[in-house]
Specification:
Elements lengths: L4 H37 L11 H4 L2 H6 L3 H5 L6 E5 L7 H8 L4 E6 L2 H14 L4 E5 L12 E7 L8 H11 E12 L8 H9 L4 E7 L3 E7 L3
Parallel strand pairs: 1-2, 1-4, 2-3, 4-5
Antiparallel strand pairs: 5-7, 6-7
Length: 224
């Protein structure tokens, strides 16, 4: 039986590629998650760097994350807080859903992320987006001033999550909605039961649950 050298070389390359790909997937989906949890226990949960904004705002991710805003339940005319919008992967669509009578307040701790969001909003001609550079522990909003708040793959990046949830509870109107979305590809991913325990311990009540392991959204009602 004769062997084609080109065919054999191709098989070898494919095999090496499969091994490397499997290794990278294991590192991303397992090793980084373990590292993230260990770091979080030490109070180290950094946000996604602004230079990585393209990762959270690429066409592939936007496609499979498309149902998120429908799950959040945004309604025309509401005042909505988006905490940790990054470069605005969901901000523009959220602002459009709110209409001219609504208002989206985007708060991010990184000025560079806010700058990217502001540029995209200007290019889209959207005027109902307000931006703020601030941390999750000191939101520049009045008590009971927003109808709805949503976070997409943000809560696990906050070192003191209980403190941040308390601040979100302060700015939400009684009976308002807090929506938390997590994505399995995120190294900081928390499983849904973990998120439920965490948020309910801050006084919120689980109202709706969407999705599954890959991407889930949990909507909670604020006390009131």
């Amino acid at each position: 039986m004769t062997h084609n050298p080109v065919f054999n070389a191709l098989i070898t390359i494919l095999g090496i590629g499969l091994i490397l790909g499997s290794g990278l997937a294991f590192i991303w989906l397992v090793v980084l998650k373990v590292f993230s949890r260990l770091a979080s226990r030490q109070g180290y949960s950094p946000p996604c760097p602004a230079s990585f904004g393209w990762i959270v705002n690429n066409p592939v991710r936007r496609r499979y994350m498309r149902p998120i805003l429908d799950r959040v339940g945004i309604r025309t005319g509401e005042c909505v807080l988006e905490l940790g919008p990054g470069p605005g992967a969901f901000s523009l669509d959220a602002a459009r859903m709110l209409g001219e009578s609504g208002r989206l307040i985007a708060v991010d701790i990184q000025p560079a992320m806010i700058a990217q969001l502001e540029q995209r909003a200007r290019e889209a001609g959207l005027r109902n987006i307000e931006t703020r550079v601030a941390g999750a522990y000191d939101l520049p909003l009045a008590d009971a001033s927003v109808d709805r708040a949503f976070l997409v793959t943000v809560l696990p990046e906050i070192p003191d999550r209980a403190r941040a949830l308390g601040e979100l509870r302060r700015v939400l109107k009684p009976g308002g909605t807090l929506s938390i979305t997590e994505e399995f590809l995120d190294p900081d991913y928390l499983f849904a039961p973990e998120t439920i325990r965490l948020v309910e311990s801050a006084g919120f009540r689980l109202a709706q649950r969407y999705g599954g392991l890959w991407v889930y959204t949990l909507n909670f009602s604020a006390p009131g």
